[in-house]
Amino acid sequence: MSPPSAAAESTTVWAELRHAEPSDVPFIRRMIYQMAEFERLTHLFSATDTSLLSTLFPSPPLPHFFSFTPLVLYLSSTSPPVPSSQTLSITQFSLSSPVVDPDEADFGSPLGDGRRIAGFVICFPNYSTFLAKPGLYIEDIFVREPWRRMGFGKFMLSSVAKKAAELGMGRVEWCVLDWNVNAIEFYKGMGAEVFQEWRICRLTGPSLEKYKDE
Amino acid sequence: MSPPSAAAESTTVWAELRHAEPSDVPFIRRMIYQMAEFERLTHLFSATDTSLLSTLFPSPPLPHFFSFTPLVLYLSSTSPPVPSSQTLSITQFSLSSPVVDPDEADFGSPLGDGRRIAGFVICFPNYSTFLAKPGLYIEDIFVREPWRRMGFGKFMLSSVAKKAAELGMGRVEWCVLDWNVNAIEFYKGMGAEVFQEWRICRLTGPSLEKYKDE
C-alpha cells in the first residue's frame, strides 16, 4: 500500500496551437456554444457549421493574421505533434494527474490519432490610428472546462502575442466581462492593461437593418 | 430695416463622404491629432504621413470595407459634388448661418476647388463568432470642431451603417469614453446599444515586445 501522501504520478501532454482546417469547424462551433453558455449569452448564438465555414475559410484563402484567423489547440498524451505549415506553436505540459474529460468523444481528432481539441482562438487585424499600425484583435480565446487552470490559456495567448509582435503589430487587444475577475487577474498577469473608461457601442439586428432604407 | 426677429438667411452645404485618396493623408493625420487632443491622449499619438500612407494604402490595394478603410468628409458651399467610384454618400445640408472655420486654410481641398475636409472615418471588418458573420468596426469617426452639432456625424455614421447592412454584415461597433455623455446620447439616438460590462484589454509597447523572446 502506498502512503496517502505520495505524490501523484505526473502526466505529459503535448500541446499544439495550429491554424484551423475546415474539418475543425464542428469542434469550433461546439466550443463557441460552450463559451456562450459561460458568458450567459446563448440567446445571441446563431453560428452553424455552414456559416462558420464560409466566413472563416473564404475562397480564395487569405493569409493568416491578415483577415479572420481561427486557431485550434490540439492535445496529445501519446506522442509529440509533428510540426507543419499550420503549426503556430508547440509545447509540452507536465500535469500533476491525468485529466478526466467528459466530452472526450465529442472533441477527439477526426484523424483517429488519439489527439483531442481543448480550445480555440479567433483573431483578426485591427488598426490604431494613433500608432498608424495594424494590431491584432482576439475575438475569442477559449479552453474547455476540464483543461482550465493548467496553463493552456497562457500558452495560446503568449503564442498569439509573440506572432503579433514578430509581425510588427502595435497592439494585441481583446475584451473581458467586468465580472470575470479570474480572467481579469490572469490577463493582468500576462502584462495587459485593462481599460475602465471605454464602452462598446453596437448597432445590430433591426437597429442596423433600418439603415438600409435611408 | 428688417425686424429683429427675421430668420437668418440659410446656407446650403453639400457633403460627400468618400473613400480617401493618398493625397488626403496629411488632412487625416491632422484630424487624428485633433481627436487625440479631444480625448486627452496626445501622449499615444505617433502617426506620420508615411506610416499612415503605408498602412492605409497597401499595395496592391484591398477592396473597400474588406480591410482598413479610411473615408473623408468633403464639404462644398459652392457646388454639389460629382459622384465618383470613391463616393459612399452625398447629401445637402441647410445651415442656419455660415460657419466660421478658423482652420480653413489647413483643410482646403488640394484640388483648389473650394471644397474643404471637415471629418473622417476609419473602419475595418471585425468578426462575431456567435453570429458567424463579419461586422464593421469603426475605429474613428471625427468631425472638426466648427462643424459639430449640425448633423455631419449622423450623416457619416448612417452612411457607414447603411453600407455595412447592404454588405450583409451582422453588426456595426465602435467605442466611446464613458465620460463623453454627448457622444453616448448621440449614439443611443442612432439606435446603438452601449455595453456597460465589457472592458478592453491591451498588450502594447514593452508588454507586447517581451513575447518576442518567449
UniProtKB/TrEMBL annotation, chains A, B:
PROSITE patterns (alphabetical): GNAT
GO molecular function: N-acetyltransferase activity
Domain N-acetyltransferase: 113-213
InterPro entries in the cross-refs: Acyl_CoA_acyltransferase (IPR016181), Diverse_Substrate_AcTransf (IPR051016), GNAT_dom (IPR000182)
Keyword Transferase carried by entry: yes
Highest taxon in the source lineage: Eukaryota
UniProt keyword annotations, A-Z: Acyltransferase, Transferase
Gene3D superfamilies for the chain: 3.40.630.30
Keyword Iron annotated: no
Coiled coil: none
Protein name: N-acetyltransferase
